[in-house]
Design a protein that fits this description.
The chain is mostly helical. The protein contains 17 helices and two strands. It has helices spanning 6-26, 39-50, 66-81, 83-95, 100-110, 130-158, 163-178, 197-212, 214-224, 237-261, 273-286, 302-314, 327-342, 356-384, 388-399, 408-411, 414-440, and strands at residues 347-349, 352-354. A two-stranded antiparallel ribbon has the order 1-2. A hairpin with a 2-residue loop joins strand 1 and strand 2 (352-354). Helix 1 packs across helix 2, helix 2 crosses helix 3 (66-81) and helix 15 (388-399) crosses helix 17. The longest helix is centred in the first third of the chain and has 29 residues, at 130-158. One of its GO terms (biological process) is metal ion transport. Pfam families: TrkH. It is a multi-pass membrane protein.
Protein backbone atom coordinates (compact mmCIF):
# COMPACT_ATOMS: atom_id res chain seq x y z
CA UNK A 1 0.00 0.00 0.00
CA UNK A 2 2.92 2.37 0.70
CA UNK A 3 4.12 1.92 -2.88
CA UNK A 4 0.78 1.77 -4.69
CA UNK A 5 -1.22 4.39 -2.75
CA UNK A 6 0.69 6.58 -0.29
CA UNK A 7 -2.36 8.78 0.46
CA UNK A 8 -4.40 5.75 1.54
CA UNK A 9 -1.50 4.57 3.66
CA UNK A 10 -1.30 8.05 5.20
CA UNK A 11 -5.03 7.91 5.92
CA UNK A 12 -4.64 4.66 7.85
CA UNK A 13 -1.65 5.97 9.80
CA UNK A 14 -3.48 9.25 10.42
CA UNK A 15 -6.49 7.40 11.82
CA UNK A 16 -4.27 5.11 13.87
CA UNK A 17 -2.56 8.14 15.41
CA UNK A 18 -5.96 9.53 16.40
CA UNK A 19 -6.82 6.33 18.26
CA UNK A 20 -3.40 6.29 19.92
CA UNK A 21 -3.72 9.91 21.02
CA UNK A 22 -7.25 9.18 22.29
CA UNK A 23 -5.84 6.43 24.49
CA UNK A 24 -3.04 8.68 25.76
CA UNK A 25 -5.39 11.55 26.56
CA UNK A 26 -7.75 9.18 28.38
CA UNK A 27 -5.04 8.26 30.90
CA UNK A 28 -5.33 9.76 34.39
CA UNK A 29 -1.84 11.23 34.03
CA UNK A 30 -3.08 13.40 31.14
CA UNK A 31 -5.63 15.32 33.23
CA UNK A 32 -4.80 17.85 35.90
CA UNK A 33 -7.17 16.24 38.41
CA UNK A 34 -5.70 12.75 37.91
CA UNK A 35 -8.99 11.29 36.67
CA UNK A 36 -9.82 9.48 33.42
CA UNK A 37 -11.09 11.85 30.75
CA UNK A 38 -14.37 10.64 29.15
CA UNK A 39 -13.95 8.87 25.83
CA UNK A 40 -15.96 11.41 23.82
CA UNK A 41 -13.83 14.31 25.10
CA UNK A 42 -10.54 12.41 24.65
CA UNK A 43 -11.45 11.42 21.09
CA UNK A 44 -12.64 14.92 20.24
CA UNK A 45 -9.43 16.49 21.56
CA UNK A 46 -7.26 13.90 19.79
CA UNK A 47 -9.00 14.49 16.47
CA UNK A 48 -8.84 18.25 16.96
CA UNK A 49 -5.10 18.04 17.70
CA UNK A 50 -4.07 15.60 14.93
CA UNK A 51 -6.32 17.42 12.43
CA UNK A 52 -4.96 20.79 13.70
CA UNK A 53 -8.48 22.15 14.19
CA UNK A 54 -8.58 23.78 17.61
CA UNK A 55 -12.18 23.06 18.58
CA UNK A 56 -12.44 21.83 22.16
CA UNK A 57 -15.05 20.47 24.52
CA UNK A 58 -12.89 21.08 27.60
CA UNK A 59 -11.01 24.02 29.06
CA UNK A 60 -7.61 23.62 27.41
CA UNK A 61 -5.92 25.83 30.02
CA UNK A 62 -7.06 23.95 33.13
CA UNK A 63 -8.15 20.41 32.28
CA UNK A 64 -4.90 18.93 30.97
CA UNK A 65 -1.74 18.21 32.94
CA UNK A 66 1.74 18.96 31.64
CA UNK A 67 1.89 15.44 30.20
CA UNK A 68 -1.44 15.98 28.46
CA UNK A 69 -0.25 19.28 27.01
CA UNK A 70 2.91 17.58 25.69
CA UNK A 71 0.78 14.91 24.01
CA UNK A 72 -1.47 17.55 22.46
CA UNK A 73 1.49 19.65 21.31
CA UNK A 74 3.11 16.60 19.70
CA UNK A 75 -0.18 15.84 17.96
CA UNK A 76 -0.53 19.27 16.41
CA UNK A 77 3.09 19.17 15.19
CA UNK A 78 2.55 15.79 13.49
CA UNK A 79 -0.78 16.89 12.05
CA UNK A 80 0.64 20.16 10.80
CA UNK A 81 3.58 18.60 8.98
CA UNK A 82 1.68 15.64 7.53
CA UNK A 83 2.21 11.94 8.06
CA UNK A 84 4.06 11.14 4.83
CA UNK A 85 6.14 14.31 4.98
CA UNK A 86 7.18 13.52 8.55
CA UNK A 87 8.05 9.94 7.59
CA UNK A 88 10.14 11.21 4.69
CA UNK A 89 11.94 13.72 6.91
CA UNK A 90 12.77 10.98 9.41
CA UNK A 91 13.96 8.72 6.60
CA UNK A 92 16.13 11.49 5.18
CA UNK A 93 17.59 12.11 8.64
CA UNK A 94 18.47 8.45 9.15
CA UNK A 95 19.65 7.41 5.68
CA UNK A 96 20.95 10.80 4.46
CA UNK A 97 19.38 10.12 1.06
CA UNK A 98 16.02 9.77 -0.65
CA UNK A 99 15.29 7.12 -3.23
CA UNK A 100 12.72 7.51 -6.00
CA UNK A 101 10.00 5.76 -3.99
CA UNK A 102 10.61 7.99 -0.99
CA UNK A 103 10.53 11.07 -3.21
CA UNK A 104 7.24 9.95 -4.79
CA UNK A 105 5.77 9.27 -1.35
CA UNK A 106 6.75 12.71 -0.07
CA UNK A 107 5.62 14.34 -3.32
CA UNK A 108 2.17 12.75 -3.05
CA UNK A 109 1.77 14.33 0.38
CA UNK A 110 2.31 17.80 -1.05
CA UNK A 111 0.49 17.21 -4.35
CA UNK A 112 -2.05 14.36 -4.61
CA UNK A 113 -2.28 14.81 -8.38
CA UNK A 114 1.07 13.06 -8.68
CA UNK A 115 -0.83 9.82 -8.19
CA UNK A 116 -2.12 10.14 -11.74
CA UNK A 117 -0.52 8.23 -14.57
CA UNK A 118 1.52 10.17 -17.05
CA UNK A 119 1.60 13.28 -14.89
CA UNK A 120 3.79 16.03 -16.26
CA UNK A 121 6.66 17.17 -14.08
CA UNK A 122 5.66 20.81 -14.54
CA UNK A 123 4.67 20.79 -10.89
CA UNK A 124 4.91 23.36 -8.12
CA UNK A 125 7.81 21.31 -6.75
CA UNK A 126 9.69 18.88 -9.00
CA UNK A 127 10.85 15.46 -7.86
CA UNK A 128 14.44 16.65 -7.91
CA UNK A 129 13.52 19.34 -5.40
CA UNK A 130 11.72 17.08 -2.89
CA UNK A 131 14.80 16.81 -0.69
CA UNK A 132 15.04 20.58 -0.54
CA UNK A 133 11.33 20.85 0.23
CA UNK A 134 11.61 18.39 3.11
CA UNK A 135 14.51 20.37 4.52
CA UNK A 136 12.48 23.56 4.11
CA UNK A 137 9.54 21.98 5.95
CA UNK A 138 11.70 20.96 8.90
CA UNK A 139 13.64 24.22 9.03
CA UNK A 140 10.58 26.44 8.60
CA UNK A 141 8.74 24.56 11.34
CA UNK A 142 11.66 24.91 13.76
CA UNK A 143 12.82 28.41 12.84
CA UNK A 144 9.38 30.04 12.55
CA UNK A 145 8.08 28.50 15.78
CA UNK A 146 11.25 29.48 17.65
CA UNK A 147 11.05 33.06 16.36
CA UNK A 148 7.37 33.25 17.30
CA UNK A 149 8.21 31.86 20.74
CA UNK A 150 10.90 34.51 21.23
CA UNK A 151 8.42 37.22 20.26
CA UNK A 152 5.54 35.92 22.40
CA UNK A 153 7.39 34.96 25.61
CA UNK A 154 8.31 38.56 26.65
CA UNK A 155 4.63 39.52 26.44
CA UNK A 156 3.70 36.71 28.82
CA UNK A 157 6.54 37.68 31.17
CA UNK A 158 5.23 41.24 31.21
CA UNK A 159 1.76 39.89 31.96
CA UNK A 160 3.03 38.31 35.20
CA UNK A 161 3.97 34.77 34.16
CA UNK A 162 7.13 33.23 35.60
CA UNK A 163 9.92 32.48 33.13
CA UNK A 164 9.38 28.75 32.54
CA UNK A 165 5.56 28.93 32.32
CA UNK A 166 5.93 31.93 30.00
CA UNK A 167 8.43 30.07 27.81
CA UNK A 168 6.29 26.93 27.65
CA UNK A 169 3.04 28.77 26.97
CA UNK A 170 4.83 30.96 24.44
CA UNK A 171 6.07 27.92 22.54
CA UNK A 172 2.64 26.26 22.79
CA UNK A 173 0.94 29.39 21.43
CA UNK A 174 3.57 29.75 18.67
CA UNK A 175 3.05 26.14 17.56
CA UNK A 176 -0.71 26.57 17.74
CA UNK A 177 -0.50 29.65 15.51
CA UNK A 178 1.91 28.29 12.88
CA UNK A 179 0.13 24.93 12.61
CA UNK A 180 -3.18 26.81 12.41
CA UNK A 181 -4.54 24.76 15.30
CA UNK A 182 -6.10 27.40 17.52
CA UNK A 183 -5.59 25.90 20.99
CA UNK A 184 -4.91 28.51 23.66
CA UNK A 185 -3.14 27.22 26.80
CA UNK A 186 -3.67 30.47 28.75
CA UNK A 187 -6.26 30.87 31.48
CA UNK A 188 -8.87 33.23 30.07
CA UNK A 189 -7.66 32.61 26.53
CA UNK A 190 -6.63 35.72 24.60
CA UNK A 191 -9.15 37.93 26.44
CA UNK A 192 -6.46 39.61 28.61
CA UNK A 193 -4.57 40.59 25.44
CA UNK A 194 -7.42 42.06 23.36
CA UNK A 195 -5.68 45.42 23.09
CA UNK A 196 -2.15 44.05 22.81
CA UNK A 197 -1.74 44.69 19.09
CA UNK A 198 1.85 43.49 19.14
CA UNK A 199 0.98 39.99 20.38
CA UNK A 200 -2.05 39.66 18.12
CA UNK A 201 0.01 40.78 15.10
CA UNK A 202 2.68 38.17 15.85
CA UNK A 203 0.00 35.47 16.11
CA UNK A 204 -1.65 36.62 12.86
CA UNK A 205 1.68 36.49 11.03
CA UNK A 206 2.28 32.97 12.33
CA UNK A 207 -1.16 31.86 11.14
CA UNK A 208 -0.61 33.46 7.72
CA UNK A 209 2.75 31.74 7.24
CA UNK A 210 1.30 28.37 8.20
CA UNK A 211 -1.71 28.85 5.93
CA UNK A 212 0.17 29.60 2.70
CA UNK A 213 1.81 26.17 2.69
CA UNK A 214 5.29 24.68 2.77
CA UNK A 215 5.73 24.65 -1.05
CA UNK A 216 5.07 28.40 -1.12
CA UNK A 217 7.50 29.03 1.75
CA UNK A 218 10.07 26.91 -0.11
CA UNK A 219 9.49 28.85 -3.32
CA UNK A 220 9.79 32.20 -1.56
CA UNK A 221 12.98 31.07 0.16
CA UNK A 222 14.53 30.07 -3.17
CA UNK A 223 13.35 33.30 -4.77
CA UNK A 224 14.76 35.60 -2.11
CA UNK A 225 17.82 34.11 -0.44
CA UNK A 226 17.98 30.42 -1.27
CA UNK A 227 20.97 28.62 -2.71
CA UNK A 228 20.85 28.75 -6.47
CA UNK A 229 18.53 31.75 -6.43
CA UNK A 230 19.80 32.90 -9.81
CA UNK A 231 18.05 29.94 -11.42
CA UNK A 232 14.80 30.51 -9.52
CA UNK A 233 13.98 34.17 -10.11
CA UNK A 234 10.48 33.30 -11.33
CA UNK A 235 7.80 32.32 -8.86
CA UNK A 236 5.73 29.36 -10.01
CA UNK A 237 2.03 29.42 -10.83
CA UNK A 238 1.07 27.65 -7.61
CA UNK A 239 2.86 30.25 -5.49
CA UNK A 240 1.33 33.15 -7.39
CA UNK A 241 -2.19 31.71 -7.21
CA UNK A 242 -1.87 30.91 -3.51
CA UNK A 243 -0.53 34.32 -2.47
CA UNK A 244 -2.87 36.29 -4.73
CA UNK A 245 -6.02 34.42 -3.71
CA UNK A 246 -5.07 34.45 -0.02
CA UNK A 247 -4.48 38.23 0.00
CA UNK A 248 -7.76 38.84 -1.87
CA UNK A 249 -9.73 36.69 0.58
CA UNK A 250 -8.11 38.27 3.64
CA UNK A 251 -8.85 41.77 2.33
CA UNK A 252 -12.41 40.88 1.30
CA UNK A 253 -13.05 39.31 4.70
CA UNK A 254 -11.61 42.37 6.43
CA UNK A 255 -13.94 44.71 4.54
CA UNK A 256 -16.99 42.47 4.97
CA UNK A 257 -16.52 41.87 8.72
CA UNK A 258 -15.92 45.58 9.32
CA UNK A 259 -19.02 46.62 7.39
CA UNK A 260 -21.31 43.99 8.91
CA UNK A 261 -20.16 44.38 12.52
CA UNK A 262 -19.66 48.15 12.57
CA UNK A 263 -22.98 48.83 14.33
CA UNK A 264 -23.14 45.63 16.38
CA UNK A 265 -23.19 46.73 20.03
CA UNK A 266 -22.20 43.22 21.17
CA UNK A 267 -18.93 43.17 19.24
CA UNK A 268 -17.42 46.33 17.75
CA UNK A 269 -19.77 49.31 18.02
CA UNK A 270 -18.25 50.47 21.31
CA UNK A 271 -14.69 50.18 19.97
CA UNK A 272 -12.81 52.97 18.29
CA UNK A 273 -12.19 53.03 14.56
CA UNK A 274 -8.63 51.76 14.90
CA UNK A 275 -9.51 48.81 17.13
CA UNK A 276 -12.50 47.89 14.97
CA UNK A 277 -10.37 47.83 11.81
CA UNK A 278 -7.65 45.82 13.56
CA UNK A 279 -10.07 43.28 15.08
CA UNK A 280 -11.80 42.80 11.72
CA UNK A 281 -8.51 42.26 9.91
CA UNK A 282 -7.34 39.85 12.61
CA UNK A 283 -10.55 37.81 12.47
CA UNK A 284 -10.32 37.69 8.68
CA UNK A 285 -6.82 36.18 8.96
CA UNK A 286 -8.10 33.66 11.52
CA UNK A 287 -10.63 32.34 8.98
CA UNK A 288 -7.66 31.02 6.96
CA UNK A 289 -7.81 28.18 9.54
CA UNK A 290 -6.15 29.87 12.51
CA UNK A 291 -9.00 29.80 15.00
CA UNK A 292 -7.30 32.03 17.58
CA UNK A 293 -10.23 34.42 17.70
CA UNK A 294 -10.65 37.56 19.79
CA UNK A 295 -14.30 38.26 18.94
CA UNK A 296 -17.00 35.83 20.07
CA UNK A 297 -18.75 34.50 16.92
CA UNK A 298 -21.83 33.82 19.05
CA UNK A 299 -22.29 37.58 19.39
CA UNK A 300 -21.85 38.33 15.69
CA UNK A 301 -24.62 39.00 13.21
CA UNK A 302 -25.91 36.10 11.13
CA UNK A 303 -24.68 37.84 7.98
CA UNK A 304 -21.16 38.00 9.40
CA UNK A 305 -21.25 34.32 10.33
CA UNK A 306 -22.23 33.48 6.73
CA UNK A 307 -19.26 35.46 5.37
CA UNK A 308 -16.94 33.70 7.77
CA UNK A 309 -18.51 30.37 6.76
CA UNK A 310 -17.46 30.97 3.18
CA UNK A 311 -13.95 32.04 4.17
CA UNK A 312 -13.44 29.04 6.48
CA UNK A 313 -14.78 26.67 3.83
CA UNK A 314 -12.05 27.82 1.44
CA UNK A 315 -9.33 27.65 4.11
CA UNK A 316 -5.65 28.06 3.30
CA UNK A 317 -3.10 26.90 0.76
CA UNK A 318 -2.47 23.37 -0.48
CA UNK A 319 0.13 21.33 1.45
CA UNK A 320 -0.23 23.77 4.34
CA UNK A 321 -1.23 23.41 7.97
CA UNK A 322 -4.62 24.93 7.09
CA UNK A 323 -7.78 23.08 6.10
CA UNK A 324 -10.72 23.73 3.78
CA UNK A 325 -10.97 23.06 0.08
CA UNK A 326 -7.84 25.28 -0.39
CA UNK A 327 -7.43 28.65 -2.05
CA UNK A 328 -6.00 27.17 -5.24
CA UNK A 329 -9.15 25.06 -5.66
CA UNK A 330 -11.26 28.22 -5.52
CA UNK A 331 -8.87 30.01 -7.87
CA UNK A 332 -9.05 27.21 -10.46
CA UNK A 333 -12.85 27.19 -10.34
CA UNK A 334 -13.02 30.95 -10.92
CA UNK A 335 -10.41 30.77 -13.68
CA UNK A 336 -12.48 28.05 -15.39
CA UNK A 337 -15.64 30.16 -15.12
CA UNK A 338 -13.82 33.17 -16.54
CA UNK A 339 -12.38 31.11 -19.42
CA UNK A 340 -15.85 29.77 -20.22
CA UNK A 341 -17.38 33.26 -20.14
CA UNK A 342 -14.71 34.57 -22.51
CA UNK A 343 -14.91 31.56 -24.80
CA UNK A 344 -11.34 30.37 -24.17
CA UNK A 345 -10.61 26.71 -24.73
CA UNK A 346 -7.86 26.66 -22.11
CA UNK A 347 -7.67 27.96 -18.56
CA UNK A 348 -4.92 30.54 -18.26
CA UNK A 349 -3.33 32.43 -15.38
CA UNK A 350 -0.07 34.39 -15.10
CA UNK A 351 0.88 33.46 -18.68
CA UNK A 352 0.54 29.74 -17.97
CA UNK A 353 -2.02 27.17 -19.16
CA UNK A 354 -3.76 25.01 -16.55
CA UNK A 355 -4.59 21.43 -17.65
CA UNK A 356 -8.22 20.30 -17.61
CA UNK A 357 -7.46 17.47 -15.17
CA UNK A 358 -6.71 20.09 -12.52
CA UNK A 359 -10.24 21.44 -12.97
CA UNK A 360 -11.58 17.89 -12.65
CA UNK A 361 -9.90 17.47 -9.29
CA UNK A 362 -10.98 20.96 -8.14
CA UNK A 363 -14.64 20.26 -8.93
CA UNK A 364 -14.46 16.90 -7.15
CA UNK A 365 -12.90 18.44 -4.03
CA UNK A 366 -15.51 21.23 -3.99
CA UNK A 367 -18.46 18.85 -4.33
CA UNK A 368 -16.98 16.49 -1.74
CA UNK A 369 -16.58 19.38 0.69
CA UNK A 370 -20.13 20.65 0.16
CA UNK A 371 -21.49 17.13 0.68
CA UNK A 372 -19.62 16.67 3.97
CA UNK A 373 -20.79 20.04 5.28
CA UNK A 374 -24.44 19.47 4.34
CA UNK A 375 -24.64 15.98 5.85
CA UNK A 376 -22.87 17.03 9.05
CA UNK A 377 -24.97 20.19 9.44
CA UNK A 378 -28.27 18.35 9.02
CA UNK A 379 -27.16 15.65 11.48
CA UNK A 380 -25.97 18.17 14.06
CA UNK A 381 -29.15 20.25 13.80
CA UNK A 382 -31.32 17.16 14.19
CA UNK A 383 -29.44 15.85 17.23
CA UNK A 384 -28.84 19.12 19.10
CA UNK A 385 -31.72 21.30 17.91
CA UNK A 386 -29.24 24.09 17.18
CA UNK A 387 -30.11 26.89 14.78
CA UNK A 388 -28.90 26.73 11.18
CA UNK A 389 -26.41 29.59 11.47
CA UNK A 390 -24.72 28.16 14.58
CA UNK A 391 -24.74 24.54 13.40
CA UNK A 392 -23.42 25.49 9.95
CA UNK A 393 -20.71 27.69 11.47
CA UNK A 394 -19.55 24.92 13.81
CA UNK A 395 -19.53 22.28 11.07
CA UNK A 396 -17.63 24.43 8.58
CA UNK A 397 -15.16 25.38 11.30
CA UNK A 398 -14.64 21.66 11.92
CA UNK A 399 -14.42 20.80 8.21
CA UNK A 400 -12.02 23.68 7.51
CA UNK A 401 -10.01 22.73 10.65
CA UNK A 402 -10.40 26.34 11.72
CA UNK A 403 -11.35 26.17 15.39
CA UNK A 404 -13.56 29.26 15.65
CA UNK A 405 -16.67 28.40 17.65
CA UNK A 406 -20.02 29.82 18.68
CA UNK A 407 -19.77 27.70 21.84
CA UNK A 408 -21.78 24.84 20.40
CA UNK A 409 -18.88 22.35 20.53
CA UNK A 410 -18.53 22.73 24.29
CA UNK A 411 -22.26 22.30 24.93
CA UNK A 412 -23.25 19.39 22.69
CA UNK A 413 -23.83 15.87 23.99
CA UNK A 414 -21.63 12.92 23.01
CA UNK A 415 -23.42 12.19 19.68
CA UNK A 416 -22.80 15.79 18.59
CA UNK A 417 -19.15 15.50 19.59
CA UNK A 418 -18.76 12.38 17.46
CA UNK A 419 -20.36 14.13 14.47
CA UNK A 420 -18.00 17.09 14.76
CA UNK A 421 -15.03 14.77 15.27
CA UNK A 422 -15.94 12.86 12.10
CA UNK A 423 -16.30 16.16 10.26
CA UNK A 424 -12.82 17.26 11.38
CA UNK A 425 -11.38 13.94 10.22
CA UNK A 426 -13.13 14.11 6.85
CA UNK A 427 -12.14 17.73 6.35
CA UNK A 428 -8.48 17.02 7.03
CA UNK A 429 -7.99 13.78 5.11
CA UNK A 430 -11.09 13.41 2.96
CA UNK A 431 -10.39 16.03 0.31
CA UNK A 432 -6.75 14.97 -0.11
CA UNK A 433 -7.70 11.30 -0.40
CA UNK A 434 -10.43 12.10 -2.91
CA UNK A 435 -8.06 14.26 -4.96
CA UNK A 436 -5.52 11.44 -5.01
CA UNK A 437 -8.18 8.88 -5.93
CA UNK A 438 -9.47 11.06 -8.78
CA UNK A 439 -5.96 11.70 -10.06
CA UNK A 440 -5.04 8.02 -9.82
CA UNK A 441 -8.17 6.99 -11.72
CA UNK A 442 -7.14 9.00 -14.79
CA UNK A 443 -6.48 6.53 -17.56
CA UNK A 444 -6.65 6.48 -21.32
CA UNK A 445 -9.14 4.46 -23.36
CA UNK A 446 -8.79 3.01 -26.83
CA UNK A 447 -12.23 4.30 -27.80
CA UNK A 448 -14.54 7.29 -27.28
CA UNK A 449 -18.30 7.14 -26.89
CA UNK A 450 -20.63 9.20 -29.13
CA UNK A 451 -21.02 12.78 -27.92
CA UNK A 452 -24.34 14.16 -26.75
CA UNK A 453 -24.78 17.34 -24.70
CA UNK A 454 -27.39 17.77 -21.95
CA UNK A 455 -28.96 21.16 -21.24
CA UNK A 456 -27.02 22.95 -18.53
CA UNK A 457 -28.13 26.17 -16.85
Amino acid sequence: MIQSSPPRFALLVFTGLIFLWTALLSLPISSSNGKITPLADSLFTAVSAICVTGLSTLDMATHWSFFGEVVILAGIQIGGIGVLTLASILGLTVTRRLGLRQKLMAASDTNPMRMGKGVSESQAVGLGEIGGLLSAVALSLIVIELILTMLITPVLLAAGYDFWPALWNGFYLAASAFTNTGFVPLVGGLAPFLTNYYLLTVIAIGVFLGAIGFPVIFALYRYVIGRGWRTHKRLGLHTKLTLTTTVILVFAGWVAITALEWNNSRTMESHGVGQTLFNSAYMSVMTRSGGLGIVDPDQMNGSTLLVMDMLMFVGGGSASTAGGIKVTTLAVLFIAAYAEARGYQDMQAFDRRIPNEVLRVAVSVFIWGVTIVLISTISLMHITGASLDHALFEVISAFGTCGLSTGLSASVDDPGKYILAATMWAGRVGTVTLAAAVAASSRSRMFRLPEERPIVG
